[in-house]
Every structure is written in structure tokens, then in C-alpha cells.
Amino acid sequence: AQLNPYLEAWLATHGDSIIQIAYHPNWPGANDPMYMNDMSDNQGRVVTYYGISGVPQVEIDGAAQSSATSVFEQAFRQRIQKLSPIAITMDRTVDVPNATVTVNVHLKVVGDVSSYKKLVLRVAAVERYVDTTGPNGEKRYMNPMRAMMPNLNGTPLTLTNGQTKDFSFTYDLNDSYRKEKMSEVAFVQDD
């Protein structure tokens, strides 16, 4: 909770150049409302995928960072110099009567992907911020993951140079979500 104001300020200086997804495990409090929203996907991403054993922990491009914003900045500067071999575009449709959001993801291979062996598309729904008091006294949760599509394991990809692929996912707009604060993030990881 103490790191959050610094992290929030640092993220604000980078606008749309960096996207935060906050996953919440069942510790230090199993009654964390962000964890309870989607327990299996939160716990799976934190413990199983990233192997995190203490919070808070910041990962940039899959690598753990210390809690100093100067370290965040250095990792960000190093990563932003690397171009992704996959361009991702998205659009969304909100179905208000059915309380669902459909997310369409378009992938275009724009570089060499031949060295990647296990590419996985992951799509997360996040809420810009949630004002509620958590078990650790936290009063504002920034960018909590609300849903993973289709789940935390994502969608396995087989891509070749120059290829394009399209995907469509739908998730439910839980009554506790604020529709106007929801957005979706698509990313590809080499597992």
C-alpha cells in the first residue's frame, strides 16, 4: 500500500506508453476485494505464472523490479527501445442489456517470430481504479484485473512471419464494475 502513490505517479508520467495490470493474491489478506473478484485467475497469475511470494512486487516485461521508481524508469527505458514483432489492435462492443463486453483482438506479425517457441495471447479486463477499503488499509486500487479471457492460461498461438490472426472474447460486466472505467489489455507472452 505504501508503494502505490509512487507507482501511480510514475505511471502517470508515461501516459499510454506503459500499461499496468494489478493482480491480487490471497495474501496478505484472503478477504482482499480485488482478489475475491476473480480468485483463480489472480492467484494463478501471481503464484503459478510469475512465482511471486511477497507483495508488493512490480514486474516489467516479465522481470521483477525493486520498489524504487528509479529502477522502474531504467527497466522501462530499456524495454521501450525494443520493438515488438507482433502488432496488436483491439476494439470492443458493450452490450448494455446483457451486461457483457466483446473484445476483438487483431494480431499482425510485423517482425521475426521464428525464435519464439510457446507464444500465448492473454487478454485482461481492468478497471481504471476502484475506491474501496481493503484488509491492509488500501483505499484505492489502481488497474485491478477484473477478468482474464478466456482464463489465466490465455490462448496458445502458432504464428509465422507476416501472418495475421483475429480473436474474439466476451466477459460479463459484474454489477460492481463501473462500465465507464473498464478497459481491456491484450498482450503476447512467450511462455
Summarize the structure.
With 191 residues, the chain is an alpha+beta fold. The chain has helices spanning 4-12, 33-37, 39-49, 69-80; strands at 58-60, 63-65, 86-95, 100-109, 119-127, 129-131, 140-142, 145-149, 155-156, 164-172, 182-190. Strands 5, 8, 9 and 11 form a 4-stranded antiparallel β-sheet that branches.
Describe this structure in words.
This protein is of the alpha+beta class. It is built from four helices and eleven strands, in the order αααββαβββββββββ. The protein has helices at residues 4-12, 33-37, 39-49, 69-80; strands at residues 58-60, 63-65, 86-95, 100-109, 119-127, 129-131, 140-142, 145-149, 155-156, 164-172, 182-190. Strands 5, 8, 9 and 11 form a four-stranded antiparallel sheet that branches. The chain has a three-stranded antiparallel sheet with strand order 3-4-10, with no helix packed on it. Strand 3 (86-95) and strand 4 form a beta hairpin. The longest helix is centred in the middle third of the chain and has 12 residues, at 69-80.
